[in-house]
Design brief:
20% helix, alpha+beta, two-stranded antiparallel sheet, Alpha-Beta Plaits, two-stranded antiparallel ribbon
Length: 60
């Protein structure tokens, strides 16, 4: 099963992922955090594609 993952070292805390997929991503201490592995209504790939520093990936 694929799941989203955030590289905290790369994350700049811009919030794009949370805006695009609030069910899965949330900001914590200025960085993005995965709060659910189920995308549901959103498209996690869109968050991956729009992260300005490529800090988000989908892992198997």
């Amino acid at each position: 099963m694929s799941k989203p993952e955030v590289n905290k070292d790369l994350c700049i805390g811009c919030g794009t992922c949370e805006a695009l997929c609030p069910t899965v991503f949330a900001m914590e201490d200025g960085k993005s955090k995965v709060v659910s592995e189920e995308c549901g209504d959103c498209d996690c790939q869109e968050a991956v594609d729009n992260c300005p520093v490529n800090a988000i990936s989908i892992v198997e």
